[in-house]
Amino acid sequence: MASETSTRVLFVTANIGSIFENPSVMLKIWTEEFLNTVSRLDPYFIALHCQEVGGKNYEESMKHVNFFVSLLMTSKELRIFNRAQIFLDEEFTSAENFTALGNFYFIHESIKEASLWDFNEQEFLPVTEKTIYSGNIEHVSTKEKSKFPQEFFPECKWSRKGFLRTRWKLNGTVFDLINIHLFHDASNFTAMQSHSSVYSVMRQKALEYTLERFRNYDFGFAPFFLFGDFNFRTDTKAVITKIVEGLDMVKDDVDKENLVVQYTDNSKEVIFTLKKKEFRHLDHQNTFMSKSGSWLKDFDHELKSFEEQLFEFPIRFQPSYPFEENEHEGMNYMQTRCPAWCDRVVLSTGAKLLINEKAFEEDNFGEVEYDLIGKKTCMGDHKPVYLKCDIMNNAGFTEVNVWERTLFDSKLPDDKNFVHLKETTV
Length: 426
Description:
Blueprint: E1 6-15, H1 23-41, E2 45-51, H2 58-61, H3 65-73, E3 83-88, E4 102-107, E5 114-118, E6 123-126, E7 130-133, E8 144-147, E9 162-170, E10 173-181, H4 188-191, H5 198-215, E11 224-229, H6 236-243, E12 248-252, E13 260-264, E14 270-275, E15 278-281, H7 284-289, E16 310-311, E17 343-348, H8 349-352, E18 369-372, E19 385-392, H9 402-407
Parallel strand pairs: 1-2, 3-7, 10-11
Antiparallel strand pairs: 1-19, 2-4, 3-4, 5-6, 5-9, 8-9, 9-10, 11-17, 12-13, 13-14, 14-15, 16-17, 18-19
């Protein structure tokens, strides 16, 4: 049974776009690895946030989404989860709304209370059954969905990036779960032009836009867990500078559309090659997988500007992207981009108060697991990332901390539509 004082939860983020390129093989492999993780960790509440549901060629691949959902819903591993809520944004003909996001929530039979917030009626509704919302889900009121404004990413003619939020009351504790997909790096050359690349700036803008949405009073404020494909990249310019130190550059710019930059050693052997969509080291796998790629953490900066707003448990796993999509090479990186921790699970400062204090003690993260799924298995170009932790029961709405109160001018509004927060000492 679930503990009287806390509930073990499993939060997973997975960009599953590439597994739809070879659905007859990859859907089963991916699902089996995910379910093995569920069995090992034995959670009582599962939140799976997927991006690029249906794949890049969604017009052709959306038909395989039903099979993917069926694999999960009929699995023996999830049979003791007697309630489920699934939100699938599949209406790809609606350019102004389509995000290709999919939020899957599974509730164990021992959970006494599980309710979803209705954003229209401003009240919690008990979850009593398994429900799948698919296709056009604009009318579904137990979620909030937003696609980022096109001007945030002008280089892309049509972006699917955005977020999908739900609010839960689980065993007396309230929190938001947000699935997010931020902008990618379109060109290695553009990414390396400056520290804090133009793509990084776009992602920062979109994330700030998202956080600003959650600061408004329309739905009240709740602690939140934000997990998805942030597309955070290492500092491309700095990484390249490090790995080509002592090498000579050879540049072929006859055709600017197919620019090739190579770096050679004294014997003229090519050690590193860079193209718009190629990032290849002569000893690629050893260079980026040695010690789980830990040396790259020195160049992982994109979350730092939000460190007063968002918390992340220490990363002790290798970069989650870009892995080979061939099912026989699941442990190798593709030679297209610099490996990076694109996929993350982060917490608001208020959400930290929901987790046992022991989880934050140095060298004592036994109660928390933050890691990759399928380290030795092909899971597509992104390895899913998960956070397993225990959330306190009967916490109500935990008080936001001093920093969050400052955002609200240190004054909560006297409004009947505002969800008043339970005072908690910070």
